[in-house]
Amino acid sequence: MSVFANTGQDCCARSRVFVERSIFDGFVEAFVAAVKKLKVGDPAKAETQLGPRCIGAQRDAVERFLENARQTGAKFACGGARLHGRGIIWNRRFY
Predict the structure, then answer these.
(1) Which of 1, 5, 36, 51 has the most Cβ atoms closer than 10 angstroms to its Cβ?
(2) Cα torsion 50, 31, 58, 61: sign
(3) b vs e for 31-67, b when ≥16 Cβ sit within 10 Å of the residue's Cβ?
(4) How confident is the model at residue 29 (pLDDT cuts 50, 70, 90)?
(5) Nearest 5 degrees, angle CA 61-CA 67-CA 72?
(6) pLDDT exceeds 50 at position 9
(7) Exposed, middle or buried by CB within 10 Å (0-12, 13-18, 19+), for 95?
(8) Cα(48)–Cα(58) distance, rounded to whole angstroms?
(9) Measured CA distances, 43 to 12, 16, 35 (Å)
(10) What is the distance between the alpha carbons of residues 14 and 8, in angstroms, rounded to a whole number?
(11) Whose CA is closest to 70, among 60, 80, 58?
């Protein structure tokens, strides 16, 4: 959860995982399965594990990173786009 705590908006958010080639595919499969189980939702609810970005500029920066990755040929195992229509915006402070 170190990369997901506080929606990755803190100075301790991890950005890399080093994995031996011999276990890479299995690691990616297990990691994606775990990420897909995360409860995305309202940060005021106890069951929520991942809330929205709270600063629009940070959200925009993440989207630029994703677009740059796309343009350089990166493949996304999951995610890669902003969530819409799933109750993601609860009040005007969140983006």
Answers:
(1) 51
(2) negative
(3) eeeeeeeeeebbeeeeeeebbbbeeeeebeeeeeebe
(4) very high
(5) 130
(6) yes
(7) middle
(8) 20
(9) 19, 25, 17
(10) 8
(11) 80
